[in-house]
Amino acid sequence: MKVGLALGGGGARGISHVGVLRILEAEDIPVDIICGTSMGSVIGAIYAFDPDSNRLESKVREYYHQHELGGSWLKFISKNKEDFKRNLFVEMSYYIRKRYMALVALRRVGLEVEDTLRKPLEQLLPDINIEDLKIPFATTAINLTKGEEAIFSKGSLIDAVYASSAIEGIFPPLMKEGNLYSDGGPTSNVPIEACRKLGADFVIAVSLPSLTMDEGKFSNGLDVILRADNIAVRKLGKKLLEGADIIITPNVEDVHWAAFDNIDYCVDSGDQATRVALPTIRERLRKHRSPFRKVRTYLASKLQ
User: Fold this and answer.
1) Of residues 41, 53, 182, 183, which has the active-site annotation?
2) Is 159 designated active site?
3) Is the pLDDT of residue 23 over 80?
4) Interior/surface letters 143-172, b for 16+ CB within 10 angstroms, e for the rest
């Protein structure tokens, strides 16, 4: 029986995947297949190349302390709005920068250039094909050209992770063989189906909750559009999660997707959520491995 791990997207909240992997490894829970979306694809790819949670955590921490994650706008939007409104001049600056970001987003395909995302990936990941990883791996993305989900399970590892992480409106989509690919979150935020397609019999899904929002306060039309989109994505996500055997949900709903300075909190949240899920994981794995279940599954397939 193959155990698949589906790592969901969520920006900085995805750092909690490090804590999840740390506990699964320490408790000898097998991980035979890894699939990731967005930040889940980054963490999953690093681990699939070098399956050691200590080195994974060290690499994430080292990269954060040595490099600035994103431009100044990234830190700007991750701050609490009230922090910017302590005096008239700071409030005016907040208003102008927010409007400037909206204007830029309307004039080009992304706030950042492709290298802003690709260069960090080239430092974090080896320049190899997915087929060369130690653990079978795949990422999910959206094929904007054909209007369908895409699963990258072979070819360039960096391209696959870039496509899955290219947040719409923030980073330019990946152009590959005449198609444009962007962040897989809207259609498959937790890539359970991808794990099944790679051969997983038992899927552990790590679902990152959305940022807590005040439903009654919208400052402009863009906020309304984003809220409506968020509701649709969450509804689809709940439906897709029904395909998992176990769901781990780290308590990171109060962490902004751009707040990469919350490493300790996110890792600990992944750690704690996995510890809580361990008894259920062990029990369900035991039932899945039961010879009687295998016989029933075999007979059912013959009768279809």
Assistant:
1) 183
2) no
3) yes
4) bbeeeebbbbbeebbbbbbbbbbbbbbbbb
